[in-house]
Write a structure and sequence with these properties.
The chain is an alpha+beta fold. The chain has three helices and nine strands. Pfam families: MoaE.
Length: about 140
């Protein structure tokens, strides 16, 4: 059974990992996205995430159910609020019968989450504030 959430509290990565453990699964793959200081030449001081929570949870649930229908267990939590450098912003974990599936499905989930789940990022950089991070033209 999946676990998905939007949280305004720090993510307890160990507790989230524990939700994936089960004798039925031989592979567990976890992605934990943290706030980084540098994106190319841009220095970030902190981030603020906001979400349309009802829709975000609905989309996370759809994604989790899609992967769990293939025989896996899924845990996905995205943080909202003000985050400092090195804080965990997102946790995606997949437990599957075999490691190859776990890797494949974890990558699919984080990539799709970033496209479909209504979570917005406001970057407080040393030079200015950016919504959603740097763009291709540097604005």
């Amino acid at each position: 059974m999946h676990y998905v959430a939007i949280s305004d509290k720090p993510l307890d990565v160990h507790a989230l990992y524990q939700k994936l453990k089960d004798p039925a699964f031989g592979g567990i793959v976890v992605f934990s996205g943290t706030v980084r200081q540098w994106t190319d030449e841009i220095e970030t001081e902190s981030l603020e995430y906001t979400a349309y929570e009802p829709m975000a949870v609905k989309e996370l649930t759809k994604l989790a159910e899609e992967v769990e229908a293939k025989g896996a267990r899924v845990v996905m939590v995205h943080r909202v609020g003000h985050l400092k450098l090195a804080d965990e912003a997102v946790f995606v974990g997949v437990a599957a019968p075999h490691r190859g599936e776990a890797f494949e499905w974890c990558e699919y989930l984080i990539d799709t989450l970033k496209q479909r789940v209504p979570v917005w990022k406001k970057e407080y950089d040393t030079d200015k504030v950016r919504w959603g991070g740097p763009t291709e033209n540097g604005n």
